[in-house]
Design brief:
The chain is of the alpha/beta class. It folds into two domains: about 130 residues, Aspartate Aminotransferase, domain 1, CATH 3.90.1150; about 230 residues, Type I PLP-dependent aspartate aminotransferase-like (Major domain) (Aspartate Aminotransferase, domain 2, 3-Layer(aba) Sandwich). The chain is built from 13 helices and twelve strands. The strands form four sheets. A five-stranded mixed β-sheet has the order 2-8-7-6-5, sandwiched between helices. A three-stranded antiparallel β-sheet has the order 9-12-11. A two-stranded parallel ribbon has the order 1-10. Strand 11 and strand 12 form a beta hairpin. Helix 3 crosses helix 10, helix 4 crosses helix 5 and helix 11 packs parallel to helix 13.
Amino acid sequence: MTRQLIPSRRAFPADDPIFALNAEAQARRSRGESILNATVGALLDDSGQLVVLESVMDLWHDLGALEVAPYAPIAGDPAFLKALVKRHWPGLGSAGAACATPGGSGAISLSMRNFLEAGQKVLTTAPFWGPYATMAAENGLDLVTAPWPAALAPLDAAAWEEALQSLLKQQGRVLLLLNDPCHNPSGRSLSASDRQVLMELLRRASAQGPITLLLDFAYLDYTKEPAAVLEAMADYAALGAEGRVLVGASMSLSKSMTLYGGRCGAIAFPWSGDPALQAALTQSCRGTWSNCAKAPQALLLRLEKDGKAQARLAAEQRHWSDVLAARALALDEALAAEGMAALHWTGGFFVCVAVADPEAVCERMKGEGVFTVPLPEGLRVGLCGMRAAEAPRFAQTLRRVLTP
């Protein structure tokens, strides 16, 4: 053990658990085993190759030297921030208080650093994307949850009310990370009625202390319900415009444009013009990554001016949304054939299969060559990497390992 490491930094796993599972699956496949790898967090085609959107790559190849090489402003190119916000809320004329970040992860981490004190707790859903907890720990915070609605079930308003009141009593403020629409890992967005219930809870809670709602928009370009996504965006815009709750968004080019390696996104509070908030976000940028890559910002600005490229991108995203929907339907049908409940995917890259003792079930499925990611609530299954034709094998393996 390296003695120079402080004691609190000596007990971490050698790799991120999801990446470690993926590496194990790939190693076993390379040895000739028949492997179903549902751990992947990037969009793959049916031959297992990474999907790269051609409309985006064409723009990337056209970038000039001065769109790639210079430093970007510390807070990001203001035109880029405005363009990214307008992709989500076309009617807005300003990004508000905003800065560029290295992907959505940077935005989420920045929110934790600026809206909570060390030792406090950030609120999110159960289940949630595991790195939320890692980011919280790296910022000296804990993470607590309230339940995401089960398929075809309503939001547990009482549990959410209890979570909000508990945090307000303990720390006088709330930061809520809400991955909606297209929730990871359930694959289901809030219904219109559930969203109204939750927003009303936040409005009432804001009378007792500052409430910040950060919307994680990682997957909303991949949905079978585009109209419902637009409705959700309008509802969140209305909440932000009221001013009682500080509403912001984590936005990323990683999934939406298959620019995972570009590491570019933004955090934005479009309904806030508070110079203190802007200064705090900019200071955090300078003190962590300093500034973000210029090329992805330049690419988005080219896209904004190119109507044909926008149409091509929208068509590609619609195509892959349809592929994900077909995979989700195949999985629901396969689960039903084995006597198990459907998952009712509406958007995103994942679904979550509820099981008791997920760690043990995951290990037993690995023994049969089927790889998933265990969560406290069940198994995360990457529709983004699992072909529809593999759904029967998945369901049959799951039924076998669950049968006493």
